[in-house]
Amino acid sequence: MLDFVEKFEPGARAKVLSHFPKASLEALELAPRTSWLPVEHDHFVVDGVVAVLGKDRARKCWRDSVPDMVDKPLLRSFVSGMVRMFGREPARIVGLLPKAWPLVYRDMGTVTLDASTPGDPVLRFSDIPRSVRAYPNYFVSWEGVCAGLAHIARVTGDATLVPAPDLSSAEVRFRWG
Which of 45, 94, 163, 165 is the most exposed, having the fewest neighbouring CB atoms within 10 Å of its CB? Predict the structure, then answer.
């Protein structure tokens, strides 16, 4: 995401990194590019992007980053294989997120798909740990990622994430153009 935020707005990466305390910056710099950072360090990426871009532009940045992210080695084979098998139908693309979630996020809860109403999928985030709920900007990033699924499906669309009052779960509804 830090690489993409620089593409989205030149100079933003350095601004985001300026929000990191020294220990978290060291954890980020020492971690292999495909590893997970614990929430106590990772949240500075999310919070920094929101602080630098504001919620609306941060959401747009995450939305626009999805095609770039799925072209990275961690997800490329998975996503391209699923798209080849199932096509680019929006509901099928949305269905990729629950399968890809554990490849991208660790200890961030569970994502399930409710596709009971054809053409109107709903993603449900559940079991969101307290450690994640302490940083509600994750919901901004997840909403942006969900909106970015429309880019992969190559349709006009958007997503709206509504968290539960206690932030232990959330629901994402999609609109397709």
Answer: 165
Q: How many CA atoms are closer than 13 Å to the CA of 162, on its beta-carbon side?
A: 4
What is the rounded distance in angstroms from the CA atom of residue 50 to the CA atom of residue 54?
5
Distance (Å, whole) CA 112 – CA 110:
7
What's the CA gap between 12 and 132, in Å, rounded? Answer: 24
Give the model's pLDDT for residue 132.
94
In what helix (H) or strand (E) does residue 124 lie, and over which residues does it extend?
strand 122-126
Question: b/e string for 118-140 if b means 16 or more Cβ within 10 A?
Answer: eeebebebeebeeebbebebbbb
Residue type (1 letter), 81: G
pLDDT in tens, 82-135: 566 665 677 777 888 898 888 778 889 999 998 877 667 899 999 999 999 999
Beta-ladder partners of 172? 123, 161
Distances (CA, A) of 148 to 17, 27, 37, 154, 174: 24, 28, 23, 10, 11
The C-alpha atoms of residue 55 and residue 129 are separated, in whole angstroms, by: 22
The Cα–Cα gap between 177 and 119 comes to 12
Query: Which residues contact residue 50 at a Cβ distance below 8 angstroms, ignoring those fewer than 6 apart?
Result: 58, 137, 140
Contacts of 4 (CB under 8 A, 6+ apart): 61, 64, 65, 68, 69
